[in-house]
Q: What sequence folds into this?
């Protein structure tokens, strides 16, 4: 009752000056606030935990983002009537330095016990206002945010009255919680001085090189038998026309040599446990059948192990298509991807090996590198942070049946073109028609093949590098095959990067023909195996039937096969198209919502090589910060057990998705115990516990009940 | 009017102002085409897959892509008076391949519906209405067909209204409900006297 009286008096006090002089509201409150002070005098000062609540409410205009959609003075006047509110203020940008200063000043002047800022999403500025709360002398966890922007003004832009009412509700609910908030103290945990990079394409290699250069032990995990990824399959790079292998090989060699990088090829991440600073990762090292010199030494075979001589390759009787060459070249069951592989260690494809033992004999008694009985090995490592760089693969373009890939021999993909035009490829760099080995004189390039496609059979996004590599392909055939004309069928040429538009100019000048029309379908001449490309020249407004010798599909890209499994292990989300989800698309493109896990390269979304390398360097820098700091603070939102109430039933233990709970003996009773560092505060156990014995810090039952009451009862007690 | 010897009135037509003006656009047209066709008629990005797939385009002036553009911009008048609107064979090849998942064929059908509301419709389409009203078939059976059917061991008439004439009143009732026959008769009379 006393509480109620107090608020009514406050209400009248606040109302008076407003009706008298409505103009500068902000100053009114400042004048008004000290007057309210005596009313709260009996409250004990000093320890903030025991005190009667004195909540300060700060309403942000966010320019017109919030103020444009609701009536701030009305919201402010209402906030002053909420029980427990001792001070109300508003400001154009609460996140600005003067805005934060208001919080700090008000805490001291009005002896506040809790802070509510009604502004944007806590995702954006909770850390900002927690810091301000701390600077003002309160525990930072005595701050609560009311989201009146993302969940209010932005969605109710055309409903001023409704938005105003909803803001009142949001603030009332936040005040109810702020009044009951307790001091919490984040736990500091040490960070393991090691990192992991998953995927050793150009992104993963760059990230690993940067981390090791910063003095951090780095485990680099690659699923394939050699490193280099997609970039090592390319012939040249746009727009500089550097030889891709030539600029990549030095990096590959550096990765192989760097003592701080521990390279695991033909391996995958098997299991991940733990949290930022302390990830326990199990690596599955797949049975390779061939020992490295180090492994041989470990087995006591001094001077043994694979030296890449290739004697085994020569005798192996099994022939399989080489995936590195897009299946256009044979390989043996014991193989390397290409002559420049790092590491230069052969691998046995046990799915096709017949275990004839010829390779063992060829390898000889000195090296003894081949072990036909080798098994998968599991290696446990501890790392502080991890970077995912799992890359991409081509969308299976045969699903777009109208273009005839896999039905017509002379329809190939961009990656197959790369191998055919590459001097180290299956044809020694001679572009030939797969049907008859002839040199093509007219080559059509189909851009946006499967990209920018909303049919569900295709990808809705732009794959971002196909325009540019198709321009490069056009250049390469003009350069290599005299009299050969490239025809590029395009919707838009997206040459957005540095020196890209200039490259487009150059290729058109060299004689490439650009036809603005998406290819409707391709028909094969059954006799000649030539192809009719059917489209609409939209600029000429005429249907086109163009007979060409060969078609190159610039196929859309999609996340690589194993991405989904790997991301789940690390607790990383993905968007509906499968690309891994960054913490913020603009302000935190390398981070994820899982602390300590970062993204590099195309696994986050299509990128060309410059963007991939830049993103890898960003991820490496972000991943090294916690390691260099040496310790991280964990949010103190963990569950804790109220031992007196706990019946020791143990049902929560099995429910916990993070294996953070265990049953222990305490004073002769079985009770639950939380490993705080493992607990993520998800609340699963707290919500379930039949005895109400689990106390969820910062989301306690009394706090949540107060919020619900505040909403349902409209603030009435 | 004769302007220059050798260049008659056609020159005046050639020199007409053909620029697109904002007044040519009717946003309501885009909305009604979308509502009738039940497809995202406003989402076309003019890639040309439809015209490239069209069996009519190589041998006529019909350009489905152009009609899609007119749907996006709401160019009602030029759409409805363009005789090309009636050259679609409704084969649905464009709809199979449209990367924006639009059904251009249904956009054309919607436009034809809107044209008919203004009595803009070729007489041969109206004669089809008359034929359906009379026999239940747009292309009724004839003696050549009957002979062919007999030859391959089929009944002389198919098991449709040709065999079951008792269903004709029902079909006529539907056509009458929408005043299709009455309107067709009226327009044919106006055109042919």
A:
């Amino acid at each position: 009752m006393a509480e109620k009286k107090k608020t009514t008096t406050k209400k009248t006090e606040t109302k008076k000056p407003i009706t008298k002089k409505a103009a500068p509201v902000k100053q009114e409150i400042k004048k008004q606030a000290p007057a309210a002070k005596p009313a709260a005098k009996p409250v004990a000062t000093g320890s903030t935990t025991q005190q009667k609540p004195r909540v300060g409410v700060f309403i942000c205009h966010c320019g017109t983002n919030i103020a444009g959609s609701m009536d701030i003075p009305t919201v402010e006047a209402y906030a002053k009537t909420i029980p427990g509110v001792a001070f109300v203020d508003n400001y154009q940008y609460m996140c600005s330095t003067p805005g934060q200063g208001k919080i700090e000043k008000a805490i001291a002047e009005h002896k506040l016990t809790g802070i509510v800022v009604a502004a944007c999403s806590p995702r954006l500025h909770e850390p900002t206002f927690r810091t301000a709360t701390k600077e003002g002398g309160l525990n930072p966890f005595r701050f609560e945010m009311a989201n009146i922007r993302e969940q209010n003004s932005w969605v109710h832009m055309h409903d001023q009255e409704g938005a105003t009412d909803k803001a009142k509700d949001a603030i009332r609910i936040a005040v109810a919680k702020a009044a009951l908030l307790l001091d919490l103290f984040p736990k500091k945990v040490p960070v393991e001085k090691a990192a992991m990079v998953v995927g050793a394409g150009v992104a993963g290699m760059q990230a690993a090189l940067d981390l090791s250069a910063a003095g951090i032990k780095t485990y680099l995990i690659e699923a394939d038998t050699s490193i280099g990824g997609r970039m090592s399959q390319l012939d040249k790079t746009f727009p500089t026309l550097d030889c891709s292998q030539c600029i990549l090989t030095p990096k590959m060699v550096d990765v192989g040599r760097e003592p701080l990088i521990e390279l695991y090829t033909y391996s995958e991440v098997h299991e991940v446990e733990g949290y930022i600073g302390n990830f326990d990762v199990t690596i599955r090292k797949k049975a390779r059948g061939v020992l490295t010199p180090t492994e041989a030494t470990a087995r006591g075979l001094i001077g043994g192990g694979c030296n890449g001589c290739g004697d085994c390759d020569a005798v192996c009787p099994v022939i399989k298509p080489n995936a590195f060459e897009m299946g256009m070249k044979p390989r043996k069951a014991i193989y390397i991807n290409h002559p420049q592989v790092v590491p230069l260690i052969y691998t046995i494809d046990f799915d096709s090996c017949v275990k004839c033992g010829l390779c063992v004999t060829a390898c000889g008694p000195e090296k003894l590198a081949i072990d036909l009985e080798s098994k998968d090995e599991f290696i446990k490592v501890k790392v502080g942070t991890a970077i995912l760089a799992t890359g991409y693969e081509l969308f299976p373009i045969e699903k777009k049946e109208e273009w005839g890939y896999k039905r017509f021999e002379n329809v190939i993909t961009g990656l197959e073109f790369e191998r055919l035009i590459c001097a180290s490829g299956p044809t020694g760099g001679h572009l030939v028609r797969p049907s008859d080995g002839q040199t093509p004189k007219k080559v059509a390039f189909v851009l946006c093949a499967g990209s920018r496609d909303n049919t569900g059979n295709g990808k809705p996004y732009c794959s971002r590098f196909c325009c540019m590599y198709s321009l490069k392909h056009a250049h390469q055939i003009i350069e290599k095959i005299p009299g050969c004309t490239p025809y590029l069928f395009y919707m838009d040429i997206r040459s957005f990067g540095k020196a890209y538009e200039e490259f487009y100019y150059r290729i058109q000048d060299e004689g490439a023909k650009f036809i603005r029309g998406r290819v409707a379908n391709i028909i094969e001449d059954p006799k000649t195996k030539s192809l009719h490309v059917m489209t609409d020249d939209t600029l000429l407004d005429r249907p086109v039937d163009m007979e060409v010798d060969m078609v190159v599909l610039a196929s859309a890209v999609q996340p690589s096969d194993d991405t989904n499994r790997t991301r789940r292990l690390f607790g990383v989300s993905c968007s509906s198209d499968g690309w891994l989800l960054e913490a913020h698309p603009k302000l935190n493109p390398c981070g994820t919502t899982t602390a300590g896990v970062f993204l590099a390269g195309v696994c986050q979304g299509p990128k060309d090589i410059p963007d991939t390398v830049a993103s890898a360097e960003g991820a490496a820098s972000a991943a090294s910060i916690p390691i260099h700091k040496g310790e991280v603070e964990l949010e103190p939102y963990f569950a804790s057990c109220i031992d007196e109430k706990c019946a020791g039933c143990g049902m929560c233990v099995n429910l916990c998705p993070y294996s953070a709970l265990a049953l222990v003996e305490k004073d002769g009773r079985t009770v639950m115990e939380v490993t705080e560092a493992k607990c993520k505060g998800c609340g699963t156990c707290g919500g379930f516990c039949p005895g109400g014995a689990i106390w969820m810090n910062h989301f306690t039952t009394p706090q949540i009940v107060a919020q619900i009451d505040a909403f349902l009862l409209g603030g009435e007690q | 009017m004769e302007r220059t010897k050798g260049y008659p009135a056609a020159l005046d037509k050639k020199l007409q102002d053909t620029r697109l003006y904002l007044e040519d656009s009717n946003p309501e047209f885009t909305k009604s085409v979308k509502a009738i066709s039940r497809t995202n008629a406003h989402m076309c990005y003019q890639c040309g897959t439809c015209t490239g797939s069209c069996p009519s385009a190589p041998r006529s002036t019909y350009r489905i892509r152009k009609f899609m553009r007119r749907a996006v911009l709401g160019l009602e008048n030029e759409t409805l008076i363009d005789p090309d609107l009636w050259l679609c064979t409704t084969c649905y090849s464009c709809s199979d391949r449209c990367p924006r998942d639009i059904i251009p064929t249904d956009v054309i059908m919607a436009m034809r519906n809107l044209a008919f509301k203004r009595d803009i419709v070729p007489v041969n389409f109206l004669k089809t209405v008359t034929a359906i009203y009379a026999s239940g078939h747009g292309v009724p059976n004839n003696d050549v067909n009957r002979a062919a059917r007999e030859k391959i061991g089929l009944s002389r008439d198919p098991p449709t209204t040709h065999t079951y004439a008792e269903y004709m009143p029902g079909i006529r009732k539907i056509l009458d409900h929408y005043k299709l026959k009455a309107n067709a008769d009226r327009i044919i009379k106006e055109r042919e006297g």
Observations:
- DSSP finds 20 helices and 32 strands in chain A.
